[in-house]
Write a structure and sequence with these properties.
Elements (H helix, E strand, L loop, with lengths): L12 H67 L3 H62 L2 H23 L5
Helix pairs in contact: 1-2, 1-3, 2-3
């Protein structure tokens, strides 16, 4: 391990170890903070997926109930002899049809939002794992006094940050 100070002078082994320990400690702190953010965002997206799924299912159940009601009123229009009731039933059937269209639109929007969140979700898990590996590499770099391991932790940390950013902005669809 060869480290130099700001002037380019080669540091002694003990000075180099102290510098490496300081730098690796900083990377551990940064990775831990980013990992905490990653976990927070991952939990948020998981909650969004679950909420959208439940709300969409509730909407489709309501849609189904309106369909059954509409079918019953359509049968009633056929079997009733009272023209006033038939007109009233047909008006109610039209209202049910509009309600169903509105419910369907809302449910589809929720499903689309859920599906979009599902596409992003794995990237938070990948980022989480890679950032944990980065922390391990930085810690090992301190224990082994290895500049190579510290550089490896920086490379894996950057990969973890890219994966986290992809989970947030989804610029690399896989």
């Amino acid at each position: 391990m060869v480290l130099k100070d700001k002037t380019g002078k080669v540091l002694s082994r003990s000075e180099g170890e102290a510098v490496l320990k300081g730098r690796a400690s900083i990377t551990i702190t940064i990775y831990a903070a980013i990992l905490a953010l990653c976990t927070l965002l991952s939990n948020g997206i998981s909650g969004r997926i679950l909420t959208d799924n439940i709300t969409a299912n509730d909407a489709w159940n309501f849609y189904q109930a309106k369909s059954i009601k509409q079918d019953l009123y359509e049968i009633a229009t056929v079997i009733t002899a009272d023209k006033t009731k038939t007109e009233s039933y047909k008006a109610y059937i039209d209202k049910l049809e509009k309600d169903r269209a509105e419910i369907s639109s809302k449910a589809k929007a929720l499903e689309q939002d859920r599906d979009e969140a599902k596409k992003r979700s794995p990237f938070f898990s990948y980022a989480n794992t890679i950032l944990q590996i980065s922390i391990v590499l930085s810690t090992t770099a301190i224990l082994a006094v290895s500049l190579g391991l510290w550089y490896a932790s920086i490379a894996t940390g950057l990969l973890g940050i890219i994966l986290l950013c992809n989970g947030i902005w989804y610029f690399l669809p896989f």
